[in-house]
Amino acid sequence: MNDLSHQVFLSSAAAQTSAAVEIPYYQPVGNECALFELAYQRQLPLLIKGPTGCGKTRFVAHMAAKLARPLITVACHDDLTAADLVGRHLIGDGETLWSDGPLTRAVRQGGICYLDEIVEARKDTTVVLHPLTDDRRILPIERTGEELAAPKEFMLVVSYNPGYQNLLKNLKPSTRQRFLAIQFDYPNAELEQSILMKEAGIDLTLATRLVDIAQRFRQLKQHDLDEAASTRLLVYAANLIAAGCPVIEACAAALVEPLTDDLDTITALMEVVKLHFDSGKLSSKTP
Ligand SMILES: Nc1ncnc2c1ncn2[C@@H]1O[C@H](COP(=O)(O)OP(=O)(O)OP(=O)(O)O)[C@@H](O)[C@H]1O
Ligand SMILES: [Mg+2]
Question: Which residue ranges does the record assign to the CbbQ/NirQ/NorQ C-terminal domain (predicted)?
């Protein structure tokens, strides 16, 4: 691939007019694109697991654009109620009006509903997904008595980061087993380099060094760090450098400081950075 400049024309009724939509760039890492398409065709819901900044959200945005479906994203949190997802009555001007929540909107529009960090939502909230994610594919709206049948274009995608999880924050098996699941991780070195080159416009030499540093940091994860340096942080570092920031400063701000507050760990990580760049051969102004 890639679809960086590929355009798709929306033809669905929901899109009303034909509008050119750019497909967000996504570098496939395995068979995830094919699996997503099959899940969509067969009307199966999908769960994406993976560490922060590894491309989950980008992947869903890419696939939604590729399939020309509207994408409705909800960031889940522990105050999220079923009404926040499904909808509620609003009172205004002496009238009570029903207002669809994002899940209901997605079902009506035949869109892709993406529930990010699903484990954060309370269990009584996730139960509302059950009739929608088994073969019934219906959304009962208790408060209006309506029962919406999901059109074949509707798809539910949820994601979470298993690293943040504790025992209390796990999906019930009866929720979990309604989804196909894909495990994401950081891409291999070669793919990650090409992501940095595309996302920030840096050259291969710099991309290789940044990815090398991240890989070193990732080896330290079990020892000193809760979370490894993500592809997202690498893209930040690459962007800073592409904008003219000296490489060591860029790595400190984008790759080291976001990972930890522990001064000894920061010093150790900065040593790794300097080892990669102190040879001084790399210009700080990479195009
Ligand atoms: N495979 C990929 N192709 C293209 N860009 C990628 C890819 N993986 C990561 N990225 C880059 O990393 C950034 C972060 O990815 P994204 O926001 O999708 O992470 P995430 O897995 O959703 O993280 P979080 O769990 O924190 O929400 C993207 O904005 C993009 O620049
Ligand atoms: Mg995300």
Answer: 192-275
Q: Is 104 helix (H, G, I), strand (E, B) or coil?
A: helix
pLDDT tens profile 175-218: 999 999 999 999 999 999 999 999 999 999 999 999 999 999 99
d(CA 173, CA 152): 25
Q: Count Cβ atoms below 10 Å from residue 143 Cβ, excluding itself.
A: 13
Nearest CA to ligand 1 atom 23: 53
Distance between CA atoms of 13 and 141, rounded to whole angstroms?
Answer: 24
Query: Pocket around ligand 1: residues whose beta carbon is below 6 Å from it?
Result: 25-27, 29, 50, 52-58, 161, 187, 195, 199, 231-232, 235
Q: Whose CA is nearest to atom 18 of ligand 1?
A: 55
Q: Which fold has domain 7-183?
A: Rossmann fold (3.40.50)
- Tens digits of per-residue pLDDT, 208-239? 999 999 999 998 866 667 788 999 999 999 99
Nearest CA to ligand 1 atom 24: 52
Kindly state the DSSP code that residue 282 receives in the 8-state scheme. Answer: S
